[in-house]
Amino acid sequence: MNAILHDVIRGCFQVEVDGHRAWLDYALDASGTVMTITHTVVPQAIGGRGIAAALTQAALVHAREQGWAVHPQCSYADAWMRRHPEFDALRA
């Protein structure tokens, strides 16, 4: 898997794997302190390789570094956070 890139302008973390782009979209609230993860998208052709997990973890590590809280609106991100209690303190 290539390195995960953070596109601040578009509000996403993305990676290209075998010619397919996977991404996690987020939005910051008006105060700039709460990251809402809205979508995690991994094309079927590259599914099952832990890509969504890697994108989610990258987003949460970034949020932690920035001092942001996280609202996992995306069902995948919510489930991932529930399986990784080390990120509980970020939950908005």
From TrEMBL:
Span of domain N-acetyltransferase:
5-92
Q: Which InterPro entries match?
A: Acyl_CoA_acyltransferase (IPR016181), Gcn5-rel_NAT (IPR045057), GNAT_YJDJ (IPR031165)
Protein's name in the database: N-acetyltransferase domain-containing protein
PANTHER family per the record?
Answer: PROTEIN NATD1
Q: Which organism is it from?
A: Thermomonas hydrothermalis
